## 1
Amino acid sequence: MAAFRNKASKAGEAKVAGERSLLLGIGISAIGTGMYVPFSLVFFHHVTGLSFTLVGLVMTVTGVAGLAFMPLAGSAVDRFGAKRVNMVLYGIRALGFALYPFASSLPAFAAVALVTALADRSFSVVQQSLIGEVARGAARDRLQASTRALQNAGMGAGALLVSGVLALWGTGGFAYTAWANSLAFALAGLLVGRVRPVPAGADGPAAGRPAAGYRTVLHDRPFLGLTAANFLTALGYAALSVLFPLYLSTWLAAPDSLTGAAFTLNTALCAGIGVLVAGRIRRSGARRTRSAALGAVLFAAAFAGQIVLGTLRPGQSATLVALLAIVVVYTLGELVHSPSGGALSVSAAPEPVRGRYLATYQLSYSLATALAPSLFTALLAVDGRLPWAVLTAAALGAALALLRLERHLPAEAVHAEPPAAAPAARRPAGAAA
């Protein structure tokens, strides 16, 4: 029995062909993303010369349009393969950032922003599909963890890099940053070209002709349940960037500098120990559903801690210590949930329609991100502890849903490595929960 598990573990942990190139490309593109995301409005205002109002309006409209494009990206993955679509999206982003400094009129900026937003919004779908295309078993969990760590480290490095550029050249340096972004995305695209997908299984689609469409996804009740559970958890992911700063400044009356400290701690932990935490969970043999549920429970514990803190409202020093402790628990929840949840969604998606499945799954993140600002501000206006109470209930609901879904999901999705007993036959895509 132990020999079987060791053999399975070695097979699942095998390096994928071109893995270093893939991860290097992800790190480089994350640096590019970090060079503009923290400064989005200011970045595009100085690059294009347009007012903040116009830039904000264009970013909102193009962002919504990008969400509508995600299902098409999923279809493209199923028809042409994730690797090809990934390279195309990198190319579009590279071209868009190369053109931004020349888009000084509103129509030109809107056109470039729209095309770039379509690629940006769809990228997560395609990248998740690519992980499923190039890796099997526990290697998917490892790539999920490595990807998240590199993205955090890269975005932090990108933010520091652009800060140095602005210190040297002032706001005029934003144009050089846009071109550096373009170069980063182009280089990342070239590196992805060195990745070698794993040959499709016997149930894979015929070349260029996917076997089914979105009706297959909509009939798959267990996967829709998984997507709904992820929506509840995704609200928690949005809390650090949306709710946390407002809660600190309004309910706790804490200095804004604590927000920066919390973000720095979260980013440092994700980049520094993310792979170690994921590896420990993977080697423990925990089922993906259960480790993802554990991550959701840790989220709930952090949110409950905010309720306690908001009730007691201790002095500034005690508040600082408590907040940082809560951020550590929150980050551990993120590190435990993210690799398992990501690999679970990738592995639960049948190969012929993996792109469509993951486009549906990623909409749970997008919808949570879109809903979070209005939901959190409305609840915060009633009572500062109320949004944390809602998030606590949502995270616990997600954990419960994951555990209940375990027996309805494919065995190869639930287990990172083949279970010792003969795996249960894969359920039909439309099987009821």
Note: The CA atoms of residues 133 and 199 lie 8 Å apart.
## 2
Amino acid sequence: MDAITPGLPKAELLEREDVRRALSEHDFAAVFSLFKKYGGLSQNRIASACRLTPGKVSAVISGRQQVTTFEVICRIADGLRIPGHLLGLAPRPWESRSVQEQVATQIVAQQRPKGDTIPWRGDAAVDLAADLTRSDLVMDRRTATRALAGAAITGSALLDPLEGWLQPVADSVRSRRRGRIGIREIEELESAARAFRAWDHRYGGGLRRKAVLGQLSEVAACLEEHQAPRVEQRLYQVMAQLAGTAATMAWDTGLQRRAQDYYLLALRASHAGGDMIFGANVLVGMARLMLYRDHPQDALELVRLAQEGSRQVTGPKVRAMLHTREAWAYAAMGRIAAFQRATAQAVEALHDVEHDEEPYWIGYFDEAELAGTTGGRLLELARQEPKRYAEMAAHEIRQALSHRGPEASRSHALDRIGLAQCHFLLGDLTGAVAETHLAVDAARATRSGRVRAQLGELYPYTVGNSAARPLREARDRIRDLLSA
């Protein structure tokens, strides 16, 4: 136990009827008061343990403020060592974490490959793939989640090493034995990469992550041998696609630092395979991660790098996608005119699309994806100015929902959650409750961590608006799903 987090509460404290009632009802004014009175904790001690300010704790105890966010509820559970079931949560990590798992965390952190120091050669990408997959495949999922969930790299530490993507591929320096991979085997690997990508796009989450890593490890082993030039090029392209899927899966399960590792591998493999278009796609995937981490300037730099490196080879659909990510960064920076300009450029580019011109992996980007992404950005603006942007956001999200159904489960769930927030911002509680139920239903159909995170952001809208039974039921459904 550290100097901030208190030890486990005395058993008699958690057995008190008034304490259990306050916990089950999320009455944190009573919880804090009872922990002060019977648990011997000062107000400052509670604040430090729960990562709150003393003023916030005081305001909660006095009834001037409420605890409304799911994240803060989890922090209180962890800070005061309250078992998850008493708050309607799943068991907290500290309830079962072993010393052995903590040691595994330290070992993996020490062994993590330093991608920013690796030269931009094909054999270096192969070594990186082998190191990443080897360390990930030997751990069970729970240990991996705890060991690899480091903070994402930002700023110049992230951006400067990526300049190598714009340079020609350096020659490999090692001698290799001759390989015997043929076109048929390559086509089978490409088919597998497509299947994994399609599965991830539909369902999200990391359920098949180790299968992807196993396939990635096999491709790396093939590239350790000297293949025919065309075979080698396609192997690198398969590696890039598998690594990109591994990155998305890692991110979707909360492993943001590991997602960056696999994005970097995907970028290096696409560079070695001469696929600048997919490399641009990898860069905007990294940009999207930065946007979720509230680093819009880093995201914009990544998008610009993607546009610069692929300008001569991208088709209209890929250009539209790049403009959409650019618009996302502008919106996050509050540059409304630039956001509108980039969005208009995306719409214009999408109108120029002809069938069978673009790579298969960009097939997901259509009018629905553009509308959903634009609606999400307008929703972010609406949180600051609801009267100006909430209805516009709702319109775009409805457009997305009308063009893609529940089969695109992750995107469908995110759209539903966004539309529910729009109704709350517009003051339409009846519509908001209805959309919240639809959002929870959609979220249950996916294992995506991003969907759960967005559902957690919807939770505060259900608190404090009304004591009406329909709103309480919607709030309870969100809590039950997030606690599962």
Note: The radius of gyration is 24 Å.
